[in-house]
Amino acid sequence: MTFSIALIFTILCVALLLFVTGRMRMDLVALLVLGALAITGLVTTEQALAGFSSPAVVTVWAMFILSAALTRTGLADLLGRPIRRHFARGGELQLIVALMTVSGLLSAFINTVTVAAVMLPVTLDLARRTRRPPSRLLMPMSLGCLLGGPFTAISTPPNILVTDALRAAGLTPFSLFAFTPITAVILAAGILFMVLGGRHLLPSESATRGETTAGLGSSYALQEHLFSARITRGSALVGRTIAQSRLGSAMQLTVLGIRRRGRMVRSPEPREMLRADDELILHGLPDHVHGLHGREHLSIIDLNVNTFSADHFSVAEASVAEGSALEGSTPAQSGLRSDHRVHLLAVERDGEDAREELKRVRLQPGDRLLLQG
Hints:
By secondary structure, this protein is α+β, with helices and mostly antiparallel strands. It is built from 16 helices and 9 strands. It has helices spanning 2-21, 26-39, 45-50, 55-72, 75-87, 92-106, 112-130, 135-148, 157-168, 180-196, 209-219, 242-245, 286-294, 305-312, 331-334, 336-340, and strands spanning 226-231, 254-260, 263-266, 279-283, 298-301, 315-319, 343-349, 352-353, 368-372. The strands form 2 sheets. It has a 5-stranded antiparallel beta sheet, covered by helices on one side. A 4-stranded antiparallel beta sheet has the order 6-9-7-8, with no helix packed on it. Helix 5 (75-87) runs parallel beside helix 7 (112-130). The termini are far apart.
């Protein structure tokens, strides 16, 4: 008996260490714990596999699949756009109430972690537009996600598990909205606390340059449109200039830089010759980049936007003023790239991102531009 307790304690400590360090994926750690319990005989094979037939486990799977679908289809981002549009000019108090309320309500139907991931760029964008330290808005947003998590019987794994436990014991399970009244009171109390005194405890430090760059990257979803790709040996791109490669004209990709033998060529000229093993920093649509990868011209590499921006380029936001020389011009006609070696990464107009048709967008007063150079 003592040996079994020591063995269980050891397995839990190792699992906790792996969870904390993050060196292995959480789902893989969970499966290893399950395997260790079965191999050591602490549970039988039937007991180890019984969870996979539990309705609670299947419901948790479905919840994560639904959350991922909302994120990947862009539906979750659409839910956050009205906040950017209607509260960008509001005071801090109004922003805190709006973020906590929306985060709490979304957590009733979407996994809390997914809600935080969806609301993160929205919150950073609001902090950037209102020139407030991001920490003063991020903490209330995360608190709203946590307080609103248990809104329904299927919104968090603990709610699902206790409901299933009641059903398995032959008792009346919780209904879908059984948790809603108490959770609504807790969420309202949390918002009230933050309004009355909690906001005075929020950190007020200004963002550093690296944090500002990270905020811009999140707000404009740069990670989805910046890629690092290596030219493979034998690729048709080897020996051609950037202009001859037709990366821009045919694939609508812009080469922001070339990493070659440890040296970075920034904003390369169209006549720059491409070589085998060159690592290209590309800006464009994912389908176009992966199309080149499929033809074995490029080997895709993951790119950390924050490191890319801070180490090799500056990323800044600007707005088109009334009477600006940029008014009415497309990015190609503006001379930003050809004359100033500055690349236009994104255009935001009335809260909407015009990146998909960026080459054909005609700049207007009030447009917010994300520039790199």
